[in-house]
Amino acid sequence: MNGLLKTEQAVIVEGKYDKIKLESIIDATIIVTNGYGIFRDREKLELIRFYARHKGIIILTDPDGAGFKIRGYLKGSVPEGKITNVYIPDVFGKEKRKEKPSCEGKLGVEGIKKELIIEAFRKAGISFTDDGNTERPVRDLITRTDLYEAGLTGMQDSAERRRRILKKIGLPERLSTTGMLEAFNTMMTREEFYKLTENKGETE
Questions:
Q1: What is the pLDDT of residues 148-180, one digit of tens each?
Q2: Architecture of domain 5-130
Q3: Closest by Cα among 89, 87, 86, 123 to 106
Q4: pTM value?
Q5: 15 with 34: CB under 8 angstroms?
Q6: Residue with the larger pLDDT of the pair 122 and 60
């Protein structure tokens, strides 16, 4: 299988190395919890809730106690939308970048073979499409300069403009500028952002 496997659902993983591993397999929005950091990160939790309501989320955490604790927290914190749990098998060993195995001696998502990850997704009923490309296309990311030029920062009424845009696309109206930028870059292309903000956030 040469190409990346596409899924519309957002995939939730624990760490950046898990994300790097999945990016070599799956073409999808991948959100990192930063381990237990999700317990305190309200903005990221709101983003996860948004994806659950609109596209669905896939929870893929490590098969250890910490992974199941994070999984349980997300399940209890996302009251609406579609949640699919994907479980990787218990494989004992040590990731190459680590000096020692984890406390339970199990490999996390980053250390599991590609074939086992794909099998775990299929067992959970996830349907993929193959995009036929061996590399993920480079996206032209939305920047803070784009936010400024759209009137979403640096203007007297920028806060109100941000509120209108966020409400229009179904995101929390109190999302910070940083959180908004991260959300935009997972949800839309730069061209779609231009179209969304062509009236500088004014409602029609």
A1: 999 999 999 999 998 888 888 777 676 678 878
A2: 3-Layer(aba) Sandwich (3.40)
A3: 89
A4: 0.71
A5: yes
A6: 60
